[in-house]
């Protein structure tokens, strides 16, 4: 479409030149030739503005830009010339992401930072940012453009889900093991009494035999390590499940030291960074998984009724671990409904006051 429009403009310029030339030759008067000279000068002046090659321009952008799905952000692109450069009309656009180009008039090669508003990106990783630069004359008669492919990528993480904040306190409470630090009836060892030891720990029979105060050291139960497992099976609710889990683990990141194990199409792996959430895809066939032992496994799924694959895997894990399931899809729906209901209740009294 742009080429067709540009071709039409060029045809009109040639047609105007042909008509003015014919007028000047046929009538051969001063006004005709002055008009012809003015038109030719106008065309040449516009052509001169395009003598500077666009390859002189250098464009840079951040190597990696992080954001979340559904959010609007500004993507800065820096433009500068490696030599002398000047054009009357100058525009830069991001064809893949930004609908509107950014225009500048009388650009002379100075360092320029253009902030493009980006919105509506879906979760994923977008490599190699394409930038289209267009230069032209004052009236748009002649234009030239150049496409740059910059070695940059947009990492779009799952969207924000504020409703999951209600679930975090409950999860923290359940995660804290009640057995941590409690004494059992098992005696681990005996030793001499030291000042400050509890008198209740004194073993009087052993003290009588050894004729010195001896106390009992009891075996203590220890907290079993907790592992969060994201069971990312492919399905219509995978995105909802992933978004809910991402928000939960983000809010717990600074509060609890937990291990996270993600089961996706890439296989089963311990979480090393947030990038995996941008690239995650649901699996069709269960991948080979790591064997856990003596741990508390909190499995986050997308259904309250596990299918055959998950049921078999849970049975295998339960041989040597404690396992608990969380249906993130149903949980996310119920929490959102509760949040909307609370917002309506808070809004209703205010509306009532306005009506009165």
Automatic annotation (TrEMBL):
Entries under InterPro entries matching the protein: DUF58
Asked whether the UniProt record includes Membrane among its keywords, one would answer yes
Q: Which residues form the DUF58 domain?
A: 190-227
Tell whether Amino-acid biosynthesis is among the UniProt keywords.
no
Source domain of life is Bacteria
Q: Which UniProt keywords apply?
A: Membrane, Transmembrane, Transmembrane helix
Q: Which PANTHER family match?
A: DUF58 DOMAIN-CONTAINING PROTEIN, SLR1927 PROTEIN-RELATED
**Can you say what this protein is called?**
DUF58 domain-containing protein
Name the residues that span the membrane. Answer: 34-54
């Amino acid at each position: 479409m742009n080429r067709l429009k540009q071709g039409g403009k060029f045809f009109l310029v040639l047609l105007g030149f042909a008509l003015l030339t014919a007028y000047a030759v046929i009538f051969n008067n001063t006004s005709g030739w002055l008009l012809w000279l003015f038109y030719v000068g106008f065309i040449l002046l516009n052509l001169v503005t395009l003598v500077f090659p666009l390859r002189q321009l250098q464009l840079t952008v951040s190597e990696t830009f992080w954001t979340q799905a559904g959010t609007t952000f500004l993507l800065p692109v820096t433009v500068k010339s490696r030599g002398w450069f000047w054009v009357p009309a100058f525009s830069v656009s991001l064809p893949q992401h930004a609908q509107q180009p950014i225009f500048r008039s009388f650009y002379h090669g100075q360092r320029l930072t253009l902030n493009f508003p980006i919105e509506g990106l879906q979760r994923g990783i977008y490599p190699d940012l394409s930038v289209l630069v267009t230069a032209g004359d004052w009236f748009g008669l002649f234009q030239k453009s150049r496409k740059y492919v910059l070695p940059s990528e947009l990492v779009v993480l799952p969207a924000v889900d504020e409703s999951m904040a209600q679930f975090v306190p409950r999860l923290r409470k359940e995660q804290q093991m009640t057995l941590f630090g409690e004494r059992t009836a098992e005696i681990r060892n005996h030793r001499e009494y030291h000042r400050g030891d509890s008198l209740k720990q004194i073993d009087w029979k052993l003290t009588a035999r050894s004729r010195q105060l001896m106390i009992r050291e009891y075996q203590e139960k220890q907290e079993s390590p907790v592992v969060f497992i994201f069971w990312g099976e492919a399905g219509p609710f995978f995105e909802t499940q992933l978004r809910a889990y991402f928000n939960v683990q983000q809010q717990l990141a600074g509060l609890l030291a937990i291990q996270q194990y993600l089961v996706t199409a890439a296989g089963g792996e311990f979480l090393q960074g947030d990038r995996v959430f941008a690239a995650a895809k649901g699996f069709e066939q269960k991948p080979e998984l790591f064997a856990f032992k003596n741990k508390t496994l909190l499995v986050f799924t997308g259904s309250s009724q596990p299918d055959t694959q998950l049921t078999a895997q849970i049975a295998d894990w339960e041989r040597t671990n404690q396992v608990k399931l969380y249906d993130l899809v149903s949980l996310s729906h119920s929490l959102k409904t509760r949040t909307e209901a609370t917002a309506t209740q808070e809004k209703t009294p205010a509306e009532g006051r306005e009506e009165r």
